[in-house]
Design brief:
This protein is an alpha/beta fold and 394 residues long. The protein has helices at residues 17-28, 54-60, 99-112, 157-161, 220-228, 231-234, 280-300, 305-335, 338-349, 352-361, 368-375, 383-393, and strands at 7-13, 33-36, 51-53, 68-72, 74-78, 84-88, 94-97, 116-118, 123-129, 132-137, 142-150, 169-179, 187-191, 200-204, 209-216, 243-251, 258-259, 262-264. Helix 2 (54-60) packs parallel to helix 7 and helix 8 runs antiparallel to helix 12 (383-393).
Length: 394
């Protein structure tokens, strides 16, 4: 059957977690939906550290845990000068996942709701004809849809063509997976100061394997090479890298995430936590909203930007303040000197009550709640930290 003659209520571009969830919720809301994925397989290429908080796993609505490699209970945070802060909860707070399996499981859930999947289907351009969008696909085929959801990733080429502004900032990310002397298989490592713009990480994937990566304002691969050469990392490397991943990390959503006939979700909309670089949780939350709004608009026959603003309003009500606080916290940390960062980590490491608060209330999906609780445990020496937290919280 020729794609040329097909028509859908909702067409989703991209089969990542946000795209699959948006299509799933469009179908659950009664729409005839299709996912258009440019690659020959879902879950490839991998451009993610694969550390998901409890909130992200819950939002994924995925049965089972075949994609989970390890459960994480804590973290070790290193300052530029080598000061260290350790904390560890009683129960797991995050999971390390195989992103290929995770993405495929999410896509299968969409298929179970009746969503159609088209692999090897890169969308070249979108044009609006009356109340429909015509999507030109590689190979010369076209499909028609009332509403299009762009979940095309950080580049967001089609979203930009529609007039959606890019995210505020795009960091350069690089990651290796390799044999590594893991210190604690239940804790991730965060190395502050190793990458201007965010930080470097070590995420255990096994007893003697780990993902080592970072995100920086530019030249992520160069910063990663330098990080791997640091003594604290170099001496623990046990062999050559088995996988290498590079990609961009968008921070700060644009002012508007809709246009006529189009909604934008996930990385393309800058829906990424600026404190950790994680995009799965906010992407899934926004995707559910997008799917529902897109389906309703399609069945109403109203694809106007004004009608689709409902999506923009609702996702910002759910996530906007958290992302804004995250951007403030990110800017705050990037303005700190190495000495100030050393002092901050040293201060926190010497406060058992603060560490207990982190262990009990730490939430990588919504970190602002922890920031608020930390304010109640600061003494006179912590006035500077209090000021920083208040700045971040607005």
């Amino acid at each position: 059957m020729s794609i040329l003659k097909e028509r859908f209520d909702v067409a989703v571009i991209g089969a990542g977690p946000a795209g699959s969830m948006a299509a799933k919720y469009a179908a659950k809301s009664g729409a005839n939906a299709v996912i258009l994925e440019e690659h020959p397989a879902v879950g490839w290429p991998v451009e993610c550290a694969g550390l998901l908080g409890l909130g992200a796993l819950a939002e994924s609505e995925l049965p089972g845990s075949s994609f989970v490699l390890r459960r994480m209970k804590g973290a070790a945070i290193y300052s530029p000068g080598g000061n260290r802060l350790d904390f560890k909860a009683q129960d797991p707070r995050a999971s390390v996942v195989d992103r290929r399996l995770f993405d495929r499981a999410a896509a299968c859930e969409a298929l179970h709701e009746g969503v159609e999947m088209r692999l090897c289907s890169p969308v070249r351009r979108i044009r609006r004809e009356g109340e429909e969008s015509v999507l030109s696909i590689g190979g010369g085929d076209e499909i028609r849809a009332s509403i299009v959801i762009s979940a095309e990733g950080v580049r967001g080429r089609l979203a930009r063509q529609a007039g959606i502004m890019p995210p505020e900032l795009v960091l350069s990310g690089a990651q290796l997976e390799l044999p590594f002397a893991v210190e604690d298989p239940e804790s991730v490592e965060v190395h502050l100061g190793a990458a201007p713009g965010l930080f470097a990480w070590v995420i255990p994937t096994g007893e003697e394997t780990a993902r080592i990566g970072l995100c920086a304002r530019e030249r992520g691969c160069e910063h990663l090479k330098r990080f791997l050469g640091q003594e604290v990392i170099r001496k623990r490397i046990l062999g050559s890298a088995t996988t290498i991943n590079v990609g961009g990390l968008p921070l700060g959503p644009p002012p508007v995430t809709v246009a006529q006939g189009l909604l934008v979700v996930g990385d393309a909309a800058g829906q990424v936590k600026p404190t950790s670089g994680g995009g799965i949780y906010p992407g899934l939350v926004a995707a559910k909203i997008a799917g529902g709004v897109a389906a309703a608009a399609a069945m109403e026959g109203d694809g106007s930007a004004q009608r689709l603003q409902e999506y923009d309003r609702i996702w910002r009500a759910n996530l906007g303040r958290e992302l804004e606080i995250g951007m403030r916290a990110n800017r705050m940390l990037n303005r700190m000197s190495a000495k100030e960062c050393d002092e901050l980590v040293n201060y926190l490491a010497g406060r058992p009550a603060l560490i207990k608060t982190i262990e009990e209330h730490g939430d990588i999906d919504r970190p602002s709640s922890l920031m608020i609780k930390m304010l109640f445990h600061l003494d006179w020496d912590g006035l500077k930290l209090a000021g920083l937290l208040r700045y971040a919280l607005g």
